[in-house]
Amino acid sequence: MSKNLIVIGGGAGGPSAAAEAKRADPSLTVTIMEQGEHVSYAA
Fold it and tell me: What is the distance between the alpha carbons of residues 30 and 21, in angstroms, rounded to a whole number?
């Protein structure tokens, strides 16, 4: 059975937590939910 992670919030912490979770378990399905039009990221 596959594992899913839903991250609420697209500020700096949300994508960072999602990336860390994906690094820890590459088979994990990650979905980020953001109310606004853009998700935060740092180049």
Answer: 8
Question: pTM for the whole thing?
Answer: 0.73
* CA-derived radius of gyration, the chain: 11
Compute, in degrees rounded to 10, the torsion defined by CA atoms 10, 13, 19, 21.
-110
Distance CA 43, CA 38 (A): 14
Question: Above 70 in pLDDT, residue 42?
Answer: no
